[in-house]
């Protein structure tokens, strides 16, 4: 059984008095432990697909099952629980809170989960160690380079030990060498057994994955 299974998934939005089909009859499977890139140009539907995969949005029709459980009929609370426990998110703009240091940014989702302080300390230190930034845990985002900020964001995504890491253009705000370092880190995490889904418009980035899923005009065009 696939970790992620989509069958005939479609999603439309109202835009300027018209209905735009962002996803059109999408079917795909992603297995546990895969490293998959979803690639397409701006407006192709990859961001909408990411939102549905990440349970940030739900499809209009079709089946999306995550770890064997159908998503579309879940309540907002159930979707939030899945996002908190099953999926770690990494974004192009890092999305770190500027007033919090690295430790506190990584700790935040664990606070939402209600994990005890001593256990949080262990998990945060483990996540920061995994990205090589334990010695920077007292630094705020403004005191870190772009690559270090993205590593903190990855640590935050890892802290709750989710089975899936969903990375949306994770190298888009970084220089070439730093981007290569982040992709190398994602490969290492995948080798440790984590499922990585990478959203990108850049072929050189997508080629780092084991498999590329091409999307254009809301359709899979492999």
CATH class: Alpha Beta
Neighbour order of strands in the largest sheet: 6-7-8-3-9-10
Q: What's the mean pLDDT score?
A: 93
Largest sheet: number of strands, sense, barrel closure: 6 strands, mixed
The CATH architecture comes to 3-Layer(aba) Sandwich
What CATH calls the topology is: Rossmann fold
The total domain count is 1
> Helix and strand succession?
EEEHEEHEHHHEHEHEE
Structural class determined from secondary elements: alpha/beta
Helix content: 25-40%
Number of DSSP helical runs: 7
* Strands, count: 10
What shape does the CA trace take? globular
Report the CATH superfamily: P-loop containing nucleotide triphosphate hydrolases
First-last Cα distance: 22 Å
Rg over CA atoms, rounded to whole Å, is 17 Å
Flag low-confidence runs: none
Question: What share of the residues does DSSP label as strand, in percent?
Answer: 25-35%
